[in-house]
Write a structure and sequence with these properties.
The complex is a heterotrimer of chains A (222), B (252) and C (224). With 252 residues, chain B is mainly α. Helices cover 76% and strands 4% of the residues of chain B. The longest helix of chain B is centred in the last third of the chain and has 53 residues. Helix content of chain C is 84%, strand content 0%. Classes of the chains: A alpha/beta (222), B mainly alpha (252), C mainly alpha (224). The interface between B and C is medium-sized, with 26 and 24 residues.
């Protein structure tokens, strides 16, 4: 079953055609790696799949919901890790994670265990958790964003440069998380420059250029 | 084929010509042919009235009607856009809003010039209608500013429609509040009944209203077509940009 | 419904916590408000009687100007690191975002109003004749300002021109609130022989209408 099904999708960014006609189909449980030069439309593609952009043209289904008319339903089920941290600078790591867990509507009984699980996975279960996000390093901020990302347990993972700013250890954690999530039934789309890293994981490599898919390589390592 | 690019059509040309001729007749009647407003006090026999200033009312009153009408059209078109989500409604709202703002400015200017000799002041704080008209003008300046702030004109449609609706709905509230605020107005209950209504006076006023309506329709028609062309051009620009991006791929 | 109130509480609480931490209101907006009171005093040539007569008008103009800053700040919090994207993805009802942010701004404005109220009593020697009228009007007017401010803040945010666009969109629409609240205060401060409670009723009515309109507009925008 297709989790992502895009047909001739065109999307605008402030009047600029960031996507010029994307055809892409991603099945459940896949790990798709999207590569391409800067400005190829990778980030826009992820935002589109998250239901954040109204498509200009073409049709799309995400997790069975229509991309033009059911974007609210899509948003609830996808997770987006983007370039910006998506965190509140004046709240602590723990406060941020707690807020985003509660606002996502996670069951009350489950909140505490999920938060401590996410903190532990991202190695934030130490004195870091009581620090304001403002005072964190780039890598620590990234790990906090990742903790917020995984705590929601989305069905479709959309990750923009997930390894950026992380040390070797952190990158390994991200890889492990991606593999585990797929084991738990999620689907993952990763946009990255870190070719080797993601090649080891991905089932498919999609090359994006000029806002369209120009190549699909099925020879992933799986 | 060298069809010149124009927003005019046969219909709009006729409308425009009629407007111009009508306006010329109006100016002739209002400023030259009709009598000034001179009355005599029944006891003392003193002269009083609006004298030549009354001539401005042949413009001022029709402009008020046209302004309100344009804003009502803008509100209806905005609501239409929110329901239908087509750019026809958006262009109509944009055109009516812009023309309404223009005529609203003219209402304020003609009113102010008229007020100087008649009320002995350019501007009257606390006069309900003067104040509400000014606020209305400011509201729609905001509306046009919001429209101008978007790079992608199509993204402006929804926020602009919301602002236009809120602004128009706010008009009665503003009227109420200003009225209670000072509870006074220099405006006569009806200017018409105060004047010596002769056949020619009434005719000139009615002609003024008719001509203003014609001019408004003419302006809105053209502004609508310009707004529509802007949408078309934007769409065309996107198509071209998409083509260019695709071709660059192929060259890679 | 329970979820809605919980979400409103979460968002309001989050905004207030951020304010307590960053102290933008206390360190920047409150001194600005004080500055306005002092500037008016100087500009009006320190004529005590005029200041007393104009106190309610000056009070509400100060509140409006501070509200613009508070609204701008409230939007900056969500824009800085694109937290708003996260809120949109969280599946939380847009009404909860609207009401949550409105509540947070309203609470901050209330604090400012108390501060400004003390200011006009001390600096302009205003005398309170009807405290309840003062408090009720202050409460409702600040909700109306916050509700409409939140909507226009969202409309203007992300355009890169919100600081310049917000006042021209918001202030004309808030004129009825300004008039109503000023008149009610005139009575409460004993400088005008009018029935201030009628004006309070007007402000309260406006608050209900504007909040409802705001919620409706928010709903329309959220669909986008």
């Amino acid at each position: 079953m297709s989790v992502v099904k895009l047909d001739g999708l065109v999307a605008l960014l402030e009047g600029f055609p960031a996507l010029t006609g994307v055809d892409l189909s991603v099945d459940a449980g896949e790990i798709v790696f999207v590569k391409g030069p800067n400005g190829a439309g990778k980030t826009t593609l992820l935002h589109l799949c998250a239901g954040l952009i109204q498509p200009k043209d073409g049709t799309g289904l995400i997790l069975g919901h229509d991309l033009s008319s059911e974007r609210t339903a899509i948003r609830k089920r996808v997770g987006l890790l983007s370039h910006s941290s998506g965190l509140y600078r004046d709240l602590t790591v723990l406060e941020n994670i707690t807020f985003w867990t509660q606002i996502a509507g996670v069951e009350q009984s489950e909140i505490d265990s999920r938060i401590s699980w996410a903190l532990e996975r991202m190695e934030l279960d130490n004195k870091l958790q009581n620090q304001k996000v403002r005072s964190l390093s780039v890598g620590q901020k990234r790990r906090t964003s990742l903790a917020v990302f995984i705590v929601r347990r989305p069905d479709l993972w959309l990750m923009d440069e997930p390894h950026a700013g992380l040390d070797q250890e952190g990158r390994q954690v991200v890889d492990d998380l991606i593999e585990e999530s797929v084991g738990a039934g999620a689907t993952v789309i990763v946009a990255s420059h870190d070719l080797e890293r993601v090649l080891n994981l991905s089932t498919r490599v999609v090359t994006l250029s000029g806002g369209a898919v120009v190549g699909v390589d099925h020879g992933g390592n799986k | 084929m060298t069809s010149s690019i124009t927003t005019a059509s046969k219909g709009s040309k006729i409308l425009g010509m009629t407007s111009i001729v009508g306006f010329a007749v109006l100016v002739l009647l209002a400023f030259f042919v009709t009598d000034p407003d001179i009355r005599f006090h029944p006891e003392t026999g003193e002269e009083f009235g609006q004298f030549d200033a009354v001539r401005l009312l042949y413009l001022h009153v029709p402009l008020i009607i046209v302004t309100y009408l344009a804003f009502v059209i803008c509100a209806i078109a905005s609501a239409g856009y929110l329901v239908k989500l087509t750019f026809w409604w958006d262009s109509m709202a944009h055109a009516a809003g812009e023309v309404g703002t223009l005529t609203c400015a003219l209402v304020l200017i003609t009113g102010s010039i008229w007020g100087r000799p008649v009320w002995n002041t350019w501007w009257e704080w606390g006069d309900v209608r003067v104040m509400s008209t000014l606020i209305l003008f400011l509201l729609f300046l905001g509306y046009l500013a919001l429209r101008g702030a978007f790079v992608n004109p199509q993204r402006a449609a929804r926020p602009a429609a919301i602002v236009a609706l809120i602004a128009v709905l706010d008009i009665p509230l503003i009227n109420r509040s200003v009225e209670w605020w000072e509870n006074r107005t220099l405006h006569q209950k009806s200017t018409l009944s105060e004047l010596k209504i002769e056949d020619l006076t009434l005719f000139t006023l009615m002609l003024g209203i008719l001509v203003s309506l014609l001019v408004m329709s003419w302006l809105i028609l053209h502004r609508f077509r310009v707004a529509w062309l802007e949408h078309v051009e934007f769409e065309q620009g996107i198509k071209t940009a998409i083509e260019e991006r695709r071709q660059m791929d192929n060259e890679d | 419904m329970k979820r809605l109130f919980a979400d409103i509480g979460l968002i309001t609480g989050k905004d207030l916590k951020i304010e307590l931490r960053s102290r933008v209101l206390i360190n920047q907006v409150a001194p600005f408000a004080l500055m306005i009171l002092v500037l008016f005093g100087i500009a009006l040539d320190a004529d005590q009687q005029s200041l007393r007569n104009f106190a309610s008008g000056l009070f509400w103009i100060s509140v409006l100007l501070c509200a613009l800053m508070a609204i701008s700040r409230s939007m900056t919090i969500e824009r800085d690191d694109e937290a708003l994207v996260g809120l949109n993805l969280s599946g939380v009802d847009p009404i909860a975002i609207f009401l949550g942010k409105t509540c947070a701004i309203a609470i901050q404005l209330l604090v400012l109003e108390i501060f400004l109220g003390v200011g006009i009593i001390l600096l302009y020697r205003s005398e309170v004749e009807d405290l309840w009228l003062l408090v009720s009007t202050g409460l409702f007017a600040c909700i109306a300002i916050s509700a409409l401010g939140t909507i226009f803040g969202f409309l203007a945010s992300g355009l890169g021109v919100r600081e310049t666009l917000l006042p021209i969109l918001l202030l004309p629409l808030l004129l009825p609130v300004l008039i109503g609240a000023t008149r009610a205060f005139d009575d409460a401060l004993g400088v005008a022989a009018i029935n201030g409670w009628n004006w309070f009723a007007f402000v309260a009515g406006l608050t209900v209408i504007l909040t409802a309109v705001g919620a409706g507009a928010n709903h329309l925008m959220a669909e986008n």
